[in-house]
């Protein structure tokens, strides 16, 4: 078997996803750049290649069943297997002033849209890629979550967790719960799956607000994507360690 590891990063055309792709590429992984927009995807691939990273683009809309199936087929043709899946693609949904999503006035269609990408999209992509991951000697799955998905932190009045985000924050709590269910299902396999919080990173996603760079935000995801075989599974991490559920 070719020893070069193959990593798919969804939403890899910019921000944290691109930083994760760059970091894994620097470690010798071949990078499948998953992104919806063809122009941005190709730009990201060319930038990675200019840095000496072996990369190829994968058209991928995580909310589209056919798009996800086509992406899995493309990766099989290009690489034959998958060693790392980083589920990075995500949306916040429309935010009010101060980033607030007021639960008392929330449009339920907005909630559906956010969950469709942040949770159902992750399930859809993960399940489509599982046959390829099972061909790896050390498959790793990393779900990009958020500290606002910690119910423990949200419920503690002494912790500053940011504004009320009644669509985005629960979607990440949902993603965390799904991550645990996968870990339970994978308990007797060599597949390790974990969630990570990148922190408040200055990217287009946050309107470039935040004290952390994309490279800093990518650090823990890269570590979880390269865990040894005896590494943890079914846990939630940030740079400081385990994040409470």
Tell me about this structure.
It is a single chain. The protein is an alpha/beta fold. The protein has helices spanning 15-26, 38-50, 65-78, 108-133, 151-155, 168-185, 214-225, and strands spanning 6-10, 30-35, 55-59, 84-87, 140-144, 192-196, 236-238, 241-242. Strands 3-2-1-4-5-6-7-8 form an eight-stranded mixed beta sheet, with helices on both faces. α3 (65-78) packs parallel to α4 (108-133). The longest helix is centred in the middle third of the chain and has 26 residues, at 108-133. The protein starts with 5 loop residues before the first strand and ends with a strand. The model has no long low-confidence stretch (mean pLDDT 95).
Key traits:
245 residues; 8 strands; globular; eight-stranded mixed sheet; 14% strand; 7 helices; alpha/beta
Quick take:
It contains seven helices and eight strands; from the N terminus they run E-H-E-H-E-H-E-H-E-H-H-E-H-E-E. The chain is an alpha/beta fold and 245 residues long. Strands 3-2-1-4-5-6-7-8 form an eight-stranded mixed β-sheet, sandwiched between helices.
Q: Which descriptor suits the 3D outline?
A: globular
Total count of helical runs of at least 4 residues: 7
Strand order of the largest sheet: 3-2-1-4-5-6-7-8
Q: Structural class per helix/strand content?
A: alpha/beta
Which sequence of SSEs, written as H and E, runs from N to C?
Answer: EHEHEHEHEHHEHEE
Gyration radius (Cα, Å) is 17 Å
Taking pLDDT < 50 over at least 5 consecutive residues as the criterion, the unreliable ranges are none
Largest sheet: 8 strands, mixed
Quaternary status: single chain
Helical proportion?
40-55%
Give the N-terminus to C-terminus distance in angstroms: 38 Å
Estimate what percentage of residues fall within beta strands: 5-15%
Mean pLDDT reading? 95
Number of strands: 8
